Amino acid sequence: MRLLGIALFIACGLAAVNAGELCSFADSATVIKQWQDVSSPGVAAKVKLSCGHAIFAKLFEMAPAAKGLFTRVNVADVNSPEFNGHVMRVMGGLDVLINYLGDTPTLEKMLDHLAKQHAVRDGVTTAGFGVMANVLMASMPQVVEGFNPDAWRNCLIPILNGMSVGLP
């Protein structure tokens, strides 16, 4: 199953990122199509959960201290309903953000909202989003057939930058 190992939520920190500036129409169309091949409604929630778990496992492997940021969602038991719920929220959030790549004003509002949510979380940093970018960029080729690293980098990095605005 090529979905195992898929990448998730979302890295780095430019202050006022406009996804349209770095993610061209062609890049966004490529990313949206490739993501839909992975995250279509026909993909079972169990598969999406497995993919999300693989992403977080890679994140915790690359940055073991990051585990401490997820205590409120019971990261001590990665199979708990709380952590599973968090994984599915992250996967769902990534899905929505990717599907709004073509609607810059809406995407910017969503990124602003997510940046504010992350800003109140102690320990969440721009560098942490950088690690997540590396996790996602390393995972997507295993998941997406014909993975286009330039298109994904051009679209994913602005998403993660937008989410990390205002973070230390």
From TrEMBL:
**Residue pairs linked by disulfide bridges in the UniProt entry:** C23-C155
Keywords, sorted A to Z: Disulfide bond, Heme, Iron, Metal-binding, Oxygen transport, Signal, Transport
Q: Which residues form the signal peptide?
A: 1-19
Binding-site residues for heme b, renumbered to this chain: H118
CDD domains the UniProt entry points to: Mb-like (cd01040)
One GO molecular function term of this record is: oxygen binding
Q: What is this protein called?
A: Extracellular globin
Q: Which organism is it from?
A: Ridgeia piscesae (Tubeworm)
